[in-house]
Description:
The chain is an alpha/beta fold. It has 11 helices and 14 strands. The protein has helices at 21-32, 49-53, 84-96, 118-127, 133-148, 156-162, 178-188, 212-220, 238-243, 255-258, 272-280; strands spanning 2-6, 36-40, 60-63, 68-70, 77-78, 100-105, 108-111, 151-152, 168-174, 194-198, 202-206, 227-232, 246-249, 263-264.
Amino acid sequence: MNIVFCDIDGTFQDLAGEVPKVNYDAIYALQKQGDHFVFISGRGYAQLTELMDELDSECDVIFSNGGGHKLVGEPIQYNHCISMAECERVIAILEARHIFYHIHTNEGIILKAVENYDTNILALRKKLEPMGETGKQIMDFKVDFFKEQCQHVEDPFTYLTEHPELKVMKIELMEASDEEHETLRDLLSSESADVFSSFTQCLEIVDPKSSKGNAIKEFMKKFPDARSYGIGDGENDLAMLEVVDIPVAVGNAKEIVKEQCQLIIGDCLDGGVGTFIFEEIIKE
């Protein structure tokens, strides 16, 4: 049996872009021959429903970088969440340094009104100017998403304390300054919080047990004789690539990711994931 663990943003799908048809076809071909395709993403499950609705057949999903999972035919499980004490510490640092941050919970994303971060967003747009139209599209998508699809609250930490039913899966920030990124890594890291980069100018703060690598180890206990593949593009995929049998990077992956992989395949935009599956895993 083969099990393919696949990142989404930048790997299976370009940000806000259409999924190449070959990627969907590859999932169905894998399932038809008795193999598994597992989405493994930094997104919360609430941010995956649109993609899941596009599928003709259900897939296993590991979300929030291993913070939870939704297996076929089973309810959602939330495994490794950030404690309220750690939330308080992290949010205090971000507030003091006027950082643009948002909080992923089991019921969606909360943040202050986006207008509070006009200066941050302007700096991010300037940072992404060398990317041309792609950079503009990224920021337009992000800003529209934060304005239209997230919940705005006056004080995020107070809101969390008033709603103890919420589970905090991760805290994510966007910051234009690379120097500030390094400072924040040092300030935010602790025995109770791991910090890593994801996508463009983002840092994520998660529970130390909330990693793609740890989630895959747990998943593979059910299939000890299976051959595992991991396909990714970003730093948050490194933990996955360390534990699978065959680590794979898409062509647009960061260099640090490519260095950890046995195979480099086609780019995300070109359907590299699906093409690889058909060429290397699907039996004739």
